[in-house]
Amino acid sequence: MPKYATDRFRIEARRMRRDRIEAAALQSVLKHAFAECSLRVVAREAKVPLSILHYYFKDKDELMHSAVQRLFESGLEALREVSARERDPLRRIEALVEAYVMRTTENWRATLAIIEYWAACVRKNTVDRFYTRLHFRLRELLREALKEAKADDPDGLALALLGMMVGYATFYRTKPADPAERDRFLDFARAMVRRAVKRGRSSVRLARRASAAR
Fold first, then answer.
1. Each residue of 56-80: b (16+ CB within 10 Å) or e?
2. Are residues 135 and 47 in the same domain?
3. Which pTM does this prediction carry?
4. Residues 201 and 150: beta-carbon distance below 8 Å
5. Which residues of the chain have pLDDT under 70?
6. CATH number at residue 27
7. How many domains does the chain contain in total?
8. Residue 15: what pLDDT?
9. Are the C-beta atoms of 89 and 148 separated by less than 8 Å?
10. pLDDT at 118
């Protein structure tokens, strides 16, 4: 077999093994929670020697970063699909808010894993490594829909919505699930968005009239 073919095979084999370990880490986090998910637990889940994990990841933090990144990317992809389905920007932002809240409150193990990793980053003063990027990408998705809907202060509203949704998802886990309460929260978020869109569109009309009068 030519050397380049052998090298390509080795690279692909390493990629597949790393992918397998990351997938095992994700399953371990969802099964055992972040704090109980040691490298030994992941190695057992992946069915590989513990020494193999150290070859691909220098420590638990690096491995957990990869696992939580997978969770986040999966959630973000689901939100992008929601966004792509809605042509009307107002309905799009409402659908995004509902999808985020439903996903984070129903898939509580995944939500808890992200919160736990964020807390670990705060303790280690490495929060910018992952959480800031997560925050920015979700906020941008909301902001673009709000901007297209001509909402008043789309960037500020996107930040407020994200803070509310993250806070509510965390709060939802502290007590028995209450779907009626969740519906009230969603109604409040929708009303907030609609008020901002109404204000924004009114401002645009006033600006156009003033321009036409000149």
1. ebeebeebbbbbbbbbbeebeeebe
2. no
3. 0.79
4. yes
5. 1-5, 7, 9, 129-131, 204-214
6. 1.10.10.60
7. 2
8. 80
9. yes
10. 80
